[in-house]
Amino acid sequence: MREYISTRGGNEKLRSAQAIIQGLAKDRGLFVPNEIPHIDLNADFTKPYKYRDIAEYVINLFFDDFSASEIKKCVDNAYDEKFEKEEIVPVQKHCGAFFIELYHGRTAAFKDMALSILPYLLTESMKKEKEMKKVCILTATSGDTGKAALEGFRDVEGTEIIVFFPENGVSEIQKRQMVSQEGKNVHVFAIKGNFDDAQTGVKKVFDDAEFNKYMNDNGYRLSSANSINVGRLIPQVAYYVYAYLKLIESSEIKNGESVNVVVPTGNFGNILAAYYAKIMGVPFKKFICASNENRVLTDFINTGLYDINRDFHVTNSPSMDILISSNLERLLFEISGRDGEIVKKMMGSLSSERKYEITNQMRDKIRDFYGGFATENETIDTIKKVYEDENYMIDTHTAVAYKVYDDYRNETGDETKTLIASTASVYKFASSFAEALGMNKQKDPFMYIDEINDFTGENEPRALQGLRNRAVLHNDVIEKESMKRAIRKVVAERK
Ligand SMILES: *Cc1c(COP(=O)(O)O)cnc(C)c1O
After folding, report:
1. Which positions ≥6 away from 266 have C-beta within 8 Å?
2. Ligand 1 atom closest to residue 424's alpha carbon, by position in its atom list
3. Which of 104, 106, 110 to mutate to test ligand 1, by most ligand atoms within 8 A of the CB atom?
């Protein structure tokens, strides 16, 4: 059976169900499978490729302490009519690339891909491991994870879900989605700080032995719905396998042909899933890592130095306004030859010096990554250009990806077929889309939704219909140092 081990070399060895419940390793590392499984694209899959079948196959390989029927149940419950497109993940050819549309789920962003299934995996894990405590899920969000986690976990038996978002770091529509969330077990707090403050705060809570004891004494254990949880990462691998197979099915490529992947990147979870797919046997050639003005990853890929001693920018692609990309730790683990000691040293240096540098050997191993970034203006120009060229609507994050892809092609002349992860509906960042297309300025952010509808003749996704009339149910704004107090308040309320 596969074992889940820490990226920081500690000697924990868990079943996947245990790793999913626990979220983070005891030595603060992230859980990774002791070995990444292989697939044979010829033998393992049959046409016509269906999303649920691929997801089931991939998740089974990683989470082999689950029975096939347990995984099937999770997959069938997750990827159903909640998704507005029957294919779940349409792959669309536009402007010289293939867009993997990951945003047709319940909250109109790609986080739904994993957070639709995580609650099922978690409750199944709790059953298997005979977990008697309630699981209290702490989530830091740059905007999209929060809503997707709230929707996924609302009223799920045995769970409590608490979300922290940066008060001024999310779009109006993202904010309204979260603060209007219904459900008995949902709790939402705005914090006075940015996403990194929220994520660091959550990690501190995990690390606090005394606080863990307090939670334990009150019948809870802590877990995470962020992409540090391996239960969230692995379902994301599935859509890269699926997208590649779809290119074969539509005769765009021959089986075995190399393909590039472009991912608008923040916490590095999505692009890491593509990297795992490559290790499994999907012939991805270049990983094009696209950032906004918070270009710490661009610099890292180009120099080998990860340095967060720099200003934090609030941009029009807020879900990528991040300086500490948690999942990069899992990449470091792979490129160091799975050397937990080295990773531990680098992570130590990141928290004490706010920077670290990888070895030359490790740099050699990231030659298949290309890093680039787009400014806010370039993002707006790209949305306009793609819409004018092909009437295709892309959100600000996906525009960052397309811009960096364009730069890559111009710089290298590489015309390899390319997949672009399209991560959100334009309607979630409606004011930017409206700005790009030269629509009128509005005071009420929801007016932009109407304006886009009028302009394009489309309708907003189900996820956002009626949102403007929903009551605000959560209006706590707290200091970033007060996250523990907020959790204590939840525990007291729920007694
Ligand atoms: C979360 C998010 C990203 C970044 O994904 P990571 O896995 O954190 O790198 C990009 N775009 C959108 C719309 C997102 O919500």
Report:
1. 142, 319, 320, 321, 322, 325
2. 13
3. 110
Pairing of strands 305-307, 355-357: antiparallel
263 CA to centre of ligand 1 in angstroms: 9
Find the 140 Cα to ligand 1 centroid distance in Å.
Answer: 13
pLDDT tens string, the chain, 495 residues long: the values are 999 999 999 999 999 999 999 999 999 999 999 999 999 999 999 999 999 999 999 999 999 999 999 999 999 999 999 999 999 999 999 999 999 999 999 999 999 999 999 999 999 999 999 999 999 999 999 899 999 999 999 999 999 999 999 999 998 999 999 999 999 999 999 999 999 999 999 989 998 999 999 999 999 999 999 989 999 999 999 999 999 999 999 999 999 999 999 999 999 999 999 999 999 999 999 999 999 999 999 999 999 999 999 999 999 999 999 999 999 999 999 999 999 999 999 999 999 999 999 999 999 999 999 999 999 999 999 999 999 999 999 999 999 999 999 999 999 999 999 999 999 999 999 999 999 999 999 999 899 999 999 998 989 999 999 999 999 999 999 999 999 999 999 999 988
347 phi, psi to nearest 5 deg: -70, -35
Phi/psi at 59 (nearest 5 deg)? Answer: -65, -40
**Structure pTM?**
0.97
The CB density around residue 361, as the number of other CB atoms within 10 Å, is 11
Give the side-chain half-sphere CA count within 13 A for 213. 3
Determine which residue's CA is closest to atom 14 belonging to ligand 1: 319
From 423, 428, 432, mutation site for ligand 1 pocket: most ligand atoms within 8 A of C-beta:
423
Ligand 1 center to 225 CA (angstroms): 14
Residues with CB under 6 A from ligand 1: 109-111, 144, 227, 264-270, 319-320, 397, 423-424
Q: Does residue 48 have a cis bond before it (omega within 30 degrees)? A: yes
Active site residues: 111
Which pair of tokens denotes residue 148? 């997707």
Pairing of strands 134-140, 220-224: parallel
Round to whole Å and give the CA distance between 212 and 222. 7
User: Helix (H, G, I), strand (E, B), or coil: what is residue 139?
Assistant: strand
DSSP notation for 289-343: EEE-S--HHHHHHHHSEEE--S-----SSGGG--S--TTHHHHHHHHTTS-HHHH
Torsion of CA 390, 392, 397, 402, to 10 degrees: -30
- For residue 338, the CA-to-ligand 1 centroid distance in Å is 25
| Token reading at 440 | 């009128």
